[in-house]
Amino acid sequence: MASSGEEARSGSPGRADTGTEPAAAADAAPLDTAEDFEVLEEEEEEEDDDDLSELPPLEDVGRPPVPPREDAQPPEQSGGDAAGDPEWLDVLGNGLLKKKTLVPGRGVDSRPRKGQDVTIRLKATLEDGTVVDEDPALTFTLGDCDVLQALDLCVQLLEMGETALIVSEAKYCYGAQGRSPDIPPNSSLTLEVELLDARDAPDLELLSGREKIRLANRKRERGNFFYQQADYVLAINSYDIALRIAGSSSKVDFSPDEEAELLDVKVKCLNNLAASQLKLDHFKAALKSCNLVLEHQPGNIKALFRKGKVLAQQGEYREAIPILKAALKLEPSNKVRWQCVLPVSCRGGTCPPPRAQPLTAPCSNPQSIPWKWLFGATAIALGGVALSVVIAARN
Questions:
Q1: Residue 15: beta bridge partners?
Q2: What is the rounded end-to-end Cα distance, in angstroms, of the chain?
Q3: pTM of the complete model beyond 0.70
Q4: Which of 138, 286, 317, 341 could potentially form a cystine with 277 if both were Cys, beta carbons 3.0 to 4.6 Å apart?
């Protein structure tokens, strides 16, 4: 289990990674304006945690960068202060993430493996030297995106006992939003890191109920952070990890309260997973996530609304209307918002029957050429082709 540096589970190294609260886009599509309906939290204290309604639209979604091979060699040159210095390793080959060894470690065989819990000493500074993070023993699961991508990618290249300097562009740190109040938008960071320990992650089957709840919640909160950053791919990854933890088998008996709390974590993850899948237009996956929530809680308003929204976006208005009506019955104050997901013709609660299509479509142009004339012209053309073939054969 993660020890000190607990804040990294919910966000950044060394402190809670809440960042700035992004404002909703002014030109958001009508469907996005209905997102407020989703924000109905069971517990007031958790409301801010799961309020994913006012988040920005998808901007730049991509898969996390592929970790470099262990035998990767430093390029002859790289950008920034490390230009031309062979001691710097261009980790991804794009000049945006560089690593330099300050104190050698115990050899390549001592490098940590993905999935292990690692502990590092961390000091993070801005380009002007301002220290923004400092943690003597930050612990996280390598490869789970629990911390900055710059750390997740570079720590796996560290040898045990090695101290390294990492220079990272904003893309692999806090991006265009930064972290209020100390890290401005689009800020590069310099990270001084020492690898202190690496050990296998705990067996999920042996965790107590309270430990499993804490671990699943940390992964869920990390997913919320990525959602706020409009990085829906990584948000989905974190929610999937949290669901795997919450749904794992156990050799330890849990109390009824712990069972109920684990179910609550699972429902929140599934709801937020559906929201992320909707942002990527993964309608089939979002529908499956909503159905899983409704299996546990048939009256879950968020799941009902999102399921209705998915069906409406697929044009299945007749299926969407009764689901949205059920959500409206549970929360009548949101009538205007839930109607936003339906076309105007369906907002009264019923959709008009689809118009029967004629067996043959009528000609849309009254000035079209008569078919008899077309037939005659075609026959003349074919005759001309045949005559040309005969003349060519005689010659």
A1: 12
A2: 92
A3: no
A4: 286
Give the gyration radius of the chain's Cα atoms: 29
Residue 45 CA, distance from chain mean position = 24
Place of tokens 């804490």: 214
Beta carbons of 188 and 168 less than 8 angstroms apart: yes
Query: Both tokens of residue 144?
Result: 């789970």
> Which residue type does 314 have?
Q
Sheet of 117-125, strands arranged across = 88-90, 97-103, 163-168, 189-199, 117-125, 131-141
Is residue 89 within 8 Å of 135, Cβ to Cβ? no
| Identity of the amino acid at 20 | T
Residues 230 and 239: their CA atoms lie apart, in Å, by 14
Helix (H) or strand (E) holding 83: none
Query: Residue holding tokens 């220079």?
Result: 167
Question: What distance in Å separates the CA atoms of residue 328 and residue 348, rounded to the nearest whole number?
Answer: 13
- Whole-number Å distance between alpha carbons of 20 and 180: 5
With H, G, I as helix, E, B as strand and everything else as coil, classify residue 108: helix
Amino acid, single-letter form, for residue 302 = K
Q: What is the mean pLDDT of each run of 10 residues along the chain (395 residues)?
A: 41 40 36 35 41 42 44 41 72 95 95 96 96 96 93 96 97 90 95 97 94 96 92 95 94 94 96 95 94 94 92 88 88 63 55 45 44 52 55 54
Output the furthest CA–CA distance in the chain (Å, rounded): 99
